[in-house]
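Reading a protein record of the kind used here takes little practice once its layout is understood. The reader may check this reading against the record printed directly beneath this paragraph.
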Amino acid sequence: MIKKNNSISRRNILKLGAGTGLFSLLSTSVPALLTSTIARAQTNPTVLRVQEVNGRPTYNGVSPGPSFFLDPGDTLDVELVNDLPALNDDCTTNMNSFHGINTTNLHTHGLHVSPTTDSSGQFDADNVFVSVVPKEQVAPCLSGKETLRRHRTNYRFETADDHPSGTFWYHAHKHGATSRQVGRGLAGPLIIRDKPGTMPDYIAQAPEKILMIMNRGLVLAEPEGGGQSSPTITMRPGEVQRWRIINAQAAGETFAYFSSNITNLDAYQIAFDGITLPKRIPVEFSDNREPWFNPSALAPGNRMDIIVRAPKDSKERLIPVGITTGIKDLLNFNSATENVTLTIKIAGDPIDAAWSDDDALPGPALPDFDDKALPKRVIDFTPNFSIDGQKHNGTIAHQMKLGTEEEWTVTNSTPGVHAFHIHVNPFFITHINGVELPKDSPLRRWQDTIGLPFRDGGRDGSVTYKTRFETFKGKFVIHCHVLRHEDLGMMQTVEVI
């Protein structure tokens, strides 16, 4: 229910599949899942029931789960019910192992909401330390570091009136089971709509599609969830569409990127990780640089909105779109490449859809940082699925004061690719590998997830950003959004006090 509130060799691997189609995906796993749905549908359920269908967990019997559409200031109430079979596997001597496979919870990825409870203290908010167990599950060890909820719990996610509008998503986040549950389908779109009059007309009037990259094939989703496999996106000549793209892939080390020899399809990036850009950025189909240097690349967990216009003079035709998979955990040279095709169908009479040559957009609606020096903090992604040399142990690794600003440098001292994600508070990127980004760089932007450059040539990779800790006190986590890495220990608990 919604309520109203007032290395060169490694680098070459990353170029597999260039020029084959519009949307290319690098991955270790099966083809990506792309879903499409109609925005603004008011079909949001009060209940999300986690139940097994054909041996896989689903939300309300379908995957991806139903789409949530909110306005800034809305409150989203969800009752999460765990109807999965009892496994009695929560208690283990190694918390950084795959366990509690059918125990679950709910995380709203990218939302700036409370990490503990709602404002009344009665309901769970974005609390990933909650464990919702199946009926009859025996879990005596779930106490202290985790809060046990028997079979069901009520979540209340309260957004502020000035919450950024954009593309977010929700998914399961139970440590030890996250990669399995998200990889098998426990994820769904969460859209906060633009306030009327804020976006240019050509964007506000464009029909919307949601493209979700997951672990299983291609599906055209219905607003209530689930949908048709092997989708075709239909566009009339001259039609303008807004595509909301969510990289919800979890089973492999997946970076999605655009690569094509198509030259007459207008495509511009207008938002990233739920934050509107100050100006639209052309999608460069020939850009096959490493993901952290490619503005259109998506690490696992990233989202991107693009506005697409079909050529006005196009005759009826089918445009095959290549999706390439091929990157392994440590950029293994033996990774195989699979290709599947998403079809864009140009058909029907031409349409004179609203358009503009003006690149200006409303911008992020978040305060800029000035040039004053900020307190610095360094976080290191280290070998053996650890952060700062330690696997996740539930203790608080870092404390930050409410209302403060800090500069963080996140380093990667491993030869593998990882994806840094922080809950609750987004960050503004300023440096990559120690080099400051130019003021007008499209990479200098707000995100909540970012692919980390790997250690190469004896030098650690790094990303530096500025962030502010506002609105909410409480514990939450930072972790690798290659979710298998998180389950195996690449996570820290942090706290705003």
Observations:
- The mean pLDDT is 85.
